[in-house]
Amino acid sequence: MTTPSPTTAAADSLLSVVIPLYNEEDNVQPLCEAVFPALRDLDRPFEVIMVDDGSRDRTVERLESLLPQYPELMLVTFKRNAGQTAAIMAGIDHSKGDVIIPMDGDLQNDPRDIGALLAKLDEGYDVVSGWRKDRQDDALTRNLPSAVANWLISKVSGVELNDYGCTLKAYRREVLSDFRLYGEMHRFVPIYARWQGARITEMPVRHHARTAGTSKYGLNRIFKVMLDLMVVKFLTQYETKPIYIFGGMGFLLFLISFLSLGGGLYLKIFEEINLNRTPLPLLSAMCVITGLMCILLGLVAELLVRIYFESQGKTNYTVKSVSKAKSAVVED
């Protein structure tokens, strides 16, 4: 977490709350009854974008019936189930606010915490991440795997957060404008934001036990998160220099090949063991071939990176501001 600057979010700027939903028909009515009064109490303009992620129950019908009652509500409906990350991305794409707050639609997040998130954001932070400090989930199947995942993500990414999985966060729009979300990567937005130079902090938020519907998360989500973490690590550190990782792997394989060949020669000279009786020559040859392929793949990746940036008119840097001295006006 970083020290904030005095920059604040204007109190009259539009607030966008993004809520993904999947098979939450029993939660739709109480969700609206909780969210809209909490937002109106903030005394600032807001919009709520609810994204139905291809629900198979009556979630869409119940939301459509509530549209006349809540003029600030926008409903985005998917043709098929695409996942929570895609739903959040769609909500962001359809939002117009300067501050974006995603939250879960199962009433486990408390909309009354939104005001505290905004207050923290106004201290000068770009991202305020919720921390379910007193989490009301099963300790063995949910809390323990989440704690392990949070520790691993923090160590790999270098962004220390206690609860990456908490959907309730507050973002300034500018930190979300330069990347897209795929897979299960909505939980990694703080990492991308830090990559863009954002100021990040974390604060405890309330968490309630689910009272209706069923959880869409299972233990298989852990493996998806770990794979996505590998992608995030690659993109944040090697997106513009892929030769470093491919070339590094190539040289590591060359080293293994050299050690294998040296071990084989030692056995031949000092132990009088025929090399044909050991796998070392084959291992050495395979490592050389694979190492060369890695280096060549890294060179191809370098070419593709350059083609991508130049064809899209993108840069490999982000500018925060540009300043220069005012020129003096000379009068006759």
Describe the structure.
With 332 residues, this protein is α/β, with parallel strands linked by helices. It has two domains: 15-237, Alpha-Beta Complex (Spore Coat Polysaccharide Biosynthesis Protein SpsA, Chain A), CATH 3.90.550.10; 242-311. The chain contains nine helices and seven strands; from the N terminus they run E-H-E-H-E-H-E-H-E-H-E-H-E-H-H-H. A seven-stranded mixed beta sheet has the order 3-2-1-4-6-5-7, sandwiched between helices. Helix 1 (28-40) links the parallel strand 1 (15-21) and strand 2 (46-52). Helix 8 (242-270) runs antiparallel to helix 9. The model has no long low-confidence stretch (mean pLDDT 84).
Task: Summarize the structure in short.
With 332 residues, the chain is α/β, with parallel strands linked by helices. It has helices at residues 28-40, 59-66, 84-94, 114-121, 139-157, 189-195, 220-238, 242-270, 280-311, and strands at 15-21, 46-52, 73-77, 99-102, 127-131, 169-172, 200-204. The chain is built from 9 helices and 7 strands.
